[in-house]
Specification:
With 227 residues, the chain is an alpha+beta fold. Helix content is 15%, strand content 40%. The chain has one domain: Glutamine Phosphoribosylpyrophosphate, subunit 1, domain 1, CATH 3.60.20. The protein has five helices and 16 strands.
Length: 227
Protein backbone atom coordinates (compact mmCIF):
# COMPACT_ATOMS: atom_id res chain seq x y z
CA UNK A 1 0.00 0.00 0.00
CA UNK A 2 1.60 3.27 -1.19
CA UNK A 3 1.44 6.68 0.42
CA UNK A 4 -1.28 8.92 -1.04
CA UNK A 5 1.13 11.76 -1.80
CA UNK A 6 3.56 9.40 -3.55
CA UNK A 7 0.85 7.99 -5.84
CA UNK A 8 -0.23 11.49 -6.84
CA UNK A 9 3.26 12.94 -7.18
CA UNK A 10 4.26 10.12 -9.55
CA UNK A 11 1.18 10.76 -11.74
CA UNK A 12 2.03 13.95 -13.60
CA UNK A 13 -1.53 14.46 -14.83
CA UNK A 14 -4.19 12.57 -12.82
CA UNK A 15 -7.14 14.49 -14.31
CA UNK A 16 -9.96 14.27 -11.78
CA UNK A 17 -9.83 12.16 -8.65
CA UNK A 18 -12.04 10.74 -5.90
CA UNK A 19 -10.82 9.58 -2.51
CA UNK A 20 -12.44 7.94 0.50
CA UNK A 21 -10.24 7.62 3.55
CA UNK A 22 -9.99 7.61 7.31
CA UNK A 23 -7.62 10.13 8.85
CA UNK A 24 -5.55 9.69 11.98
CA UNK A 25 -8.20 11.28 14.17
CA UNK A 26 -10.70 8.62 13.06
CA UNK A 27 -12.69 10.87 10.70
CA UNK A 28 -14.14 9.24 7.59
CA UNK A 29 -13.75 11.74 4.76
CA UNK A 30 -14.29 12.06 1.05
CA UNK A 31 -12.23 14.21 -1.29
CA UNK A 32 -12.49 15.40 -4.86
CA UNK A 33 -9.91 17.21 -6.97
CA UNK A 34 -9.56 18.73 -10.42
CA UNK A 35 -6.50 19.18 -12.58
CA UNK A 36 -6.41 20.52 -16.11
CA UNK A 37 -4.11 21.57 -18.93
CA UNK A 38 -6.27 23.53 -21.38
CA UNK A 39 -7.51 27.08 -20.82
CA UNK A 40 -11.13 25.84 -20.84
CA UNK A 41 -10.40 23.18 -18.21
CA UNK A 42 -8.59 25.64 -15.99
CA UNK A 43 -11.34 28.27 -16.20
CA UNK A 44 -13.38 26.50 -13.53
CA UNK A 45 -14.02 26.78 -9.81
CA UNK A 46 -15.23 24.38 -7.14
CA UNK A 47 -17.80 26.01 -4.86
CA UNK A 48 -20.74 25.33 -2.58
CA UNK A 49 -23.99 26.35 -4.27
CA UNK A 50 -26.98 27.92 -2.56
CA UNK A 51 -28.87 24.61 -2.68
CA UNK A 52 -26.09 22.86 -0.76
CA UNK A 53 -24.48 21.03 -3.69
CA UNK A 54 -20.74 21.21 -4.32
CA UNK A 55 -20.46 22.23 -7.96
CA UNK A 56 -17.81 22.63 -10.64
CA UNK A 57 -18.72 25.89 -12.35
CA UNK A 58 -17.17 28.31 -14.86
CA UNK A 59 -15.23 31.21 -13.36
CA UNK A 60 -16.86 33.62 -15.83
CA UNK A 61 -20.09 33.79 -17.79
CA UNK A 62 -19.09 31.22 -20.39
CA UNK A 63 -21.73 28.80 -21.64
CA UNK A 64 -22.46 25.68 -19.60
CA UNK A 65 -20.53 22.63 -20.77
CA UNK A 66 -21.98 19.39 -19.44
CA UNK A 67 -18.56 17.69 -19.49
CA UNK A 68 -16.82 20.49 -17.56
CA UNK A 69 -19.56 21.92 -15.33
CA UNK A 70 -21.55 19.63 -13.02
CA UNK A 71 -22.57 18.72 -9.48
CA UNK A 72 -19.45 17.22 -7.89
CA UNK A 73 -21.01 16.26 -4.53
CA UNK A 74 -24.55 16.00 -3.18
CA UNK A 75 -26.01 14.69 0.06
CA UNK A 76 -28.90 12.25 -0.48
CA UNK A 77 -30.38 11.12 2.82
CA UNK A 78 -27.66 9.30 4.76
CA UNK A 79 -25.40 9.02 1.72
CA UNK A 80 -22.97 11.50 0.24
CA UNK A 81 -22.47 11.08 -3.51
CA UNK A 82 -19.48 12.60 -5.28
CA UNK A 83 -17.68 12.20 -8.58
CA UNK A 84 -16.41 13.70 -11.79
CA UNK A 85 -19.47 14.47 -13.88
CA UNK A 86 -23.19 14.87 -14.39
CA UNK A 87 -23.70 11.25 -13.32
CA UNK A 88 -23.41 12.40 -9.69
CA UNK A 89 -26.89 13.91 -9.87
CA UNK A 90 -28.23 10.77 -11.57
CA UNK A 91 -26.79 8.47 -8.90
CA UNK A 92 -28.05 10.76 -6.11
CA UNK A 93 -31.59 10.53 -7.53
CA UNK A 94 -31.35 6.74 -7.66
CA UNK A 95 -30.13 6.59 -4.07
CA UNK A 96 -33.00 8.86 -3.01
CA UNK A 97 -35.40 6.44 -4.73
CA UNK A 98 -34.05 3.60 -2.59
CA UNK A 99 -32.20 1.62 -5.25
CA UNK A 100 -29.44 -0.72 -3.98
CA UNK A 101 -25.95 0.67 -4.42
CA UNK A 102 -24.91 -1.63 -7.30
CA UNK A 103 -28.00 -0.53 -9.23
CA UNK A 104 -27.55 3.13 -8.28
CA UNK A 105 -24.02 3.03 -9.71
CA UNK A 106 -24.88 0.79 -12.66
CA UNK A 107 -25.61 1.52 -16.30
CA UNK A 108 -23.28 4.54 -16.57
CA UNK A 109 -20.98 5.18 -19.52
CA UNK A 110 -17.60 6.82 -19.97
CA UNK A 111 -17.49 10.38 -21.32
CA UNK A 112 -17.81 10.88 -25.10
CA UNK A 113 -14.55 12.81 -25.42
CA UNK A 114 -12.25 11.03 -27.89
CA UNK A 115 -9.44 10.13 -27.99
CA UNK A 116 -9.16 9.85 -24.19
CA UNK A 117 -12.75 8.76 -23.37
CA UNK A 118 -12.58 9.92 -19.76
CA UNK A 119 -13.88 7.42 -17.18
CA UNK A 120 -16.82 8.41 -15.02
CA UNK A 121 -15.95 7.93 -11.36
CA UNK A 122 -18.59 8.03 -8.62
CA UNK A 123 -18.52 7.36 -4.87
CA UNK A 124 -21.42 6.91 -2.46
CA UNK A 125 -20.24 7.15 1.14
CA UNK A 126 -21.61 7.25 4.66
CA UNK A 127 -24.83 5.34 4.98
CA UNK A 128 -26.42 4.13 8.23
CA UNK A 129 -23.07 3.14 9.77
CA UNK A 130 -21.05 6.03 8.36
CA UNK A 131 -18.27 3.55 7.58
CA UNK A 132 -19.23 2.29 4.13
CA UNK A 133 -18.35 3.50 0.65
CA UNK A 134 -19.14 2.23 -2.81
CA UNK A 135 -17.02 3.19 -5.80
CA UNK A 136 -18.33 2.99 -9.34
CA UNK A 137 -16.23 3.37 -12.49
CA UNK A 138 -17.42 3.38 -16.11
CA UNK A 139 -14.41 2.95 -18.39
CA UNK A 140 -13.82 2.34 -22.08
CA UNK A 141 -12.16 -0.96 -22.88
CA UNK A 142 -8.43 -0.83 -23.67
CA UNK A 143 -9.23 -3.17 -26.58
CA UNK A 144 -11.02 -2.15 -29.78
CA UNK A 145 -14.60 -2.47 -28.58
CA UNK A 146 -16.49 0.70 -27.69
CA UNK A 147 -18.70 -0.86 -25.01
CA UNK A 148 -18.29 0.25 -21.41
CA UNK A 149 -16.50 -1.71 -18.71
CA UNK A 150 -18.27 -1.06 -15.41
CA UNK A 151 -16.75 -1.77 -12.01
CA UNK A 152 -18.33 -1.52 -8.55
CA UNK A 153 -16.14 -1.69 -5.45
CA UNK A 154 -17.40 -1.80 -1.87
CA UNK A 155 -15.05 -0.46 0.82
CA UNK A 156 -15.85 -0.98 4.51
CA UNK A 157 -14.30 -0.26 7.89
CA UNK A 158 -11.08 1.46 6.89
CA UNK A 159 -8.50 1.73 9.64
CA UNK A 160 -7.11 5.20 10.48
CA UNK A 161 -4.56 6.15 7.83
CA UNK A 162 -6.11 4.00 5.06
CA UNK A 163 -7.88 5.11 1.89
CA UNK A 164 -8.96 4.23 -1.63
CA UNK A 165 -8.19 6.53 -4.57
CA UNK A 166 -9.39 6.60 -8.19
CA UNK A 167 -8.15 9.00 -10.87
CA UNK A 168 -9.38 9.46 -14.41
CA UNK A 169 -5.88 9.46 -15.95
CA UNK A 170 -2.32 8.34 -15.42
CA UNK A 171 0.54 10.12 -17.13
CA UNK A 172 4.33 10.15 -17.22
CA UNK A 173 4.27 13.72 -18.48
CA UNK A 174 4.35 12.70 -22.14
CA UNK A 175 1.49 10.24 -22.70
CA UNK A 176 -1.93 10.06 -21.04
CA UNK A 177 -3.87 6.85 -20.45
CA UNK A 178 -6.94 5.80 -18.51
CA UNK A 179 -6.18 5.67 -14.82
CA UNK A 180 -5.45 2.54 -12.83
CA UNK A 181 -8.77 1.00 -11.64
CA UNK A 182 -8.03 1.97 -8.02
CA UNK A 183 -5.23 2.48 -5.51
CA UNK A 184 -5.26 1.47 -1.87
CA UNK A 185 -3.28 4.20 -0.14
CA UNK A 186 -2.04 5.39 3.22
CA UNK A 187 -2.29 8.95 4.46
CA UNK A 188 -0.39 10.64 7.27
CA UNK A 189 -3.12 13.27 7.67
CA UNK A 190 -4.66 13.47 11.12
CA UNK A 191 -7.47 15.90 10.29
CA UNK A 192 -9.60 17.29 7.47
CA UNK A 193 -7.31 20.27 6.97
CA UNK A 194 -4.21 18.09 6.92
CA UNK A 195 -5.76 15.80 4.30
CA UNK A 196 -6.58 18.77 2.06
CA UNK A 197 -3.02 20.07 2.43
CA UNK A 198 -1.61 16.63 1.60
CA UNK A 199 -3.72 16.37 -1.55
CA UNK A 200 -2.98 19.90 -2.70
CA UNK A 201 0.77 19.70 -2.20
CA UNK A 202 0.95 16.38 -4.09
CA UNK A 203 -0.74 17.81 -7.22
CA UNK A 204 1.59 19.53 -9.66
CA UNK A 205 1.15 23.30 -9.56
CA UNK A 206 1.03 23.66 -13.35
CA UNK A 207 -2.15 21.53 -13.63
CA UNK A 208 -3.99 21.80 -10.31
CA UNK A 209 -7.31 23.66 -10.31
CA UNK A 210 -9.17 22.85 -7.10
CA UNK A 211 -9.51 20.28 -4.33
CA UNK A 212 -12.11 19.72 -1.63
CA UNK A 213 -12.45 17.54 1.46
CA UNK A 214 -15.83 16.83 3.03
CA UNK A 215 -17.64 14.55 5.46
CA UNK A 216 -20.92 12.68 4.87
CA UNK A 217 -23.78 14.59 6.44
CA UNK A 218 -21.69 17.76 6.69
CA UNK A 219 -21.19 18.85 3.10
CA UNK A 220 -21.91 22.42 4.19
CA UNK A 221 -18.60 22.33 6.11
CA UNK A 222 -16.56 21.43 3.01
CA UNK A 223 -13.02 22.79 2.82
CA UNK A 224 -11.80 23.93 -0.60
CA UNK A 225 -8.52 25.08 -2.10
CA UNK A 226 -8.36 26.81 -5.50
CA UNK A 227 -5.44 27.57 -7.80
Amino acid sequence: MDQLNKVLEENRYPGRGVLWCRTGDGSRLGAYFLTGRSAASRARSLRLAADGDLVVAPIDEREHDHLRHYVAARQSGEWLIFGNGEQVATVADRVADGLPMPLSLGGLDYEPDPPIFTPRLTVTAGGPTGADAWFGAARRSSLDRASTNRMTLQVSNLEPGEGVLMTTYRSDGHTIATGTPFHEVRTTADSRSALLDELWSALRSEVRIAAAVFEPGRLDQVRILQA
